[in-house]
Structures are given as C-alpha cells and as structure tokens.
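In the laboratory, one determines a bound structure by crystallizing the protein with its ligand and collecting diffraction data. In a computational setting the workflow is compressed into a single prediction: the sequence and the ligand go in, and a structural description comes out. We illustrate the idea with zinc ion.
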Amino acid sequence: MLGVSVGALRRHDVGAQEEINLRVTPADLPQLGLAGDLQVFGTLTNLGAQGIEAAIGVEGTAQRECARCLAPVTLPVDARVEETYALTGPWPSVVEDTLDVEPLVSEAVLLEEPLRVLCRQDCKGICPTCGKDLNEGPCECRDDEIDPRLERLKEFLGSGEEKRS
Ligand SMILES: [Zn+2]
Ligand SMILES: [Zn+2]
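The predicted complex, in structure-token form:
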C-alpha cells in the first residue's frame, strides 16, 4: 500500500490539481526488485463525481538477472502511467480519502522492462553441461549444444554405470 491522501483535493473545485512526490525505497516494495530509491511524481486531478485522476511517473533503477548467464543487471526505470480512481468500487477507487498508488507504481516499473533481460546483446550464457560462464571463455565440453533428450539418456547411462561399479 502506497497511500496518498486526497481529502483536501476532493474539497476543492472540480478540475483542481495537486502535485505528488514520493520516494519509494527498495524495502518499501520488495517485489519490484528496485536497485535504489524510486522517485514517484505526478499530478492528481479532482474529477468531482468521476473521482480522482492520477497521472504519475517513476524514475529509478531495477535489479534484474541476465536471462542467459544470471549476472546481475541494473535496468533504468523511467515510465508514465495514468489511472482514474472512482469514488466507490474495487481498485482503482478512493478509500477513506486515500488513493493506493502501489498497483500504479508497479505497473509503471514493469511497463518498459524487456521480456528477456540480457547483460549484453551477445551474452553467450552458461554451458548447460558444465555450468561455466561462456563469456569468460569456452569450456571443455565437446558439443556446444547437446540435444536435451540425449543429455538425459547420457545421465541415465552414467548413473547406471555408477551403480554397477
Ligand atoms: Zn549474460
Ligand atoms: Zn561446458
């Protein structure tokens, strides 16, 4: 929950606006995997009976893993999102003169994140056989790509031999 009080704004005229500025630490929203503090800023607009419109931006960095070699990757976060909070009903709605902007902030952080995070475009990844980081050089394995079915057969035969010896 990231609550923003809108009691004063709701008592203003329709069309009145209020700036928001929050600093979210990685510990505040651990599920987002922030690398550092996130700056949340934006404008709230009183829409009268329609509720409150929130237009927010987020700026910071997120800590991710390379999809191929699992090295830590720090991604820039810089996105804008908008949402209208109704006066009643499920999220997004105003509850006790407070908006919960956490779902909006989460959406913004994940909005421009690539589907596959890579430490670099030509990351060679980890050898599936020996586990060596191939960015550091080639490994001793004979084949770069082993058919996973053959790999399982090899393990099966290998374990059989171990039992016999
Ligand atoms: Zn990588
Ligand atoms: Zn290998």
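Helices lie at 7-10, 102-111, 148-164. Keep in mind that any predicted model is a hypothesis to be tested, not a measurement.
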